[in-house]
Amino acid sequence: DLPKQAKAGPDIKDSITVPNPKSEKTRLNITFGAGDLNLSSGAENLVDGSVVYNVKDLKPEVTSDGGNVEIKQGDFKGLPPLENVKKKWDLKLSHKPMDLTIPAGAYNGTYDLGGLALKSLTIKDGAADVKLNFSQPNATDMSVFRYETGVSNVKLSGLANANFNSMIFSSGAGDYTLDFTGTLKRNATVTVSSGLSNLIVVIPAGMNANVAVEGGLANVNAGSGWSQNGKL
């Protein structure tokens, strides 16, 4: 006996409000599958926003345990529908210092994280199309920014504003842009591991940087103003 297959229906719109935890340390986990995820600052609570979906099983679930908060999509109780599935989350985050983790699937992501107080940021996704921007400086020191992705199209901009101590970016094949514009407040280390991809690294004029490239099949084109030692 096979389970019944869920069916897409009319749009359902819900609001999400997650109060600020009373704990000194806040860890927010946003688990997202396929669909559209938009994140920005400006929440009065820890999280304010709205979600739209057309399969009842996808109703978001919010759990809280002290300073640990998770927002995740609901699980399909039967077989998932094969087409016409809609899911869109528009969420705003507060300026409360937090560790933010986003496990996601094949989705479209638009993030403006400027002005938040992120102590660490971890994003892990599959085949994704993501634009992430720190339009304003991060309000606290970030220990590490970790981004792991599959075969994706990802653009990260305003990275100097993230104020991280270290950044770790790993990916499969795809198109990637790492743009380090912004206000650099301290020295930082960036480690990039990528497959057969097109990788663009943007470092503004006047920002001191040493770039070391290691690998086999690689073609490196540096703009004017760079000095190069060695060949690949």
Protein model, in words:
It is a single chain. This protein is an all-beta fold and 232 residues long. The chain has strands at residues 12-18, 27-31, 35-41, 47-53, 61-65, 68-72, 87-93, 98-103, 107-112, 118-124, 129-133, 142-148, 152-157, 164-170, 174-179, 189-193, 198-202. It has a 9-stranded mixed sheet with strand order 1-4-7-3-9-11-13-15-17, with no helix packed on it. It has an 8-stranded mixed sheet with strand order 5-6-2-8-10-12-14-16, with no helix packed on it. The mean pLDDT is 91.
Give a short synopsis of this structure.
The chain is mostly beta strands. The chain contains no helices and 17 strands.
The main pleated sheet reads as: 9 strands, mixed
- What is the spatial order of strands in the main beta sheet? 1-4-7-3-9-11-13-15-17
Number of helices: 0
Q: State the secondary-structure class.
A: mainly beta
Low-confidence stretches: none
Mean pLDDT across the residues is: 91
List keywords for this structure.
44% strand, globular, eight-stranded mixed sheet, mainly beta, 232 residues
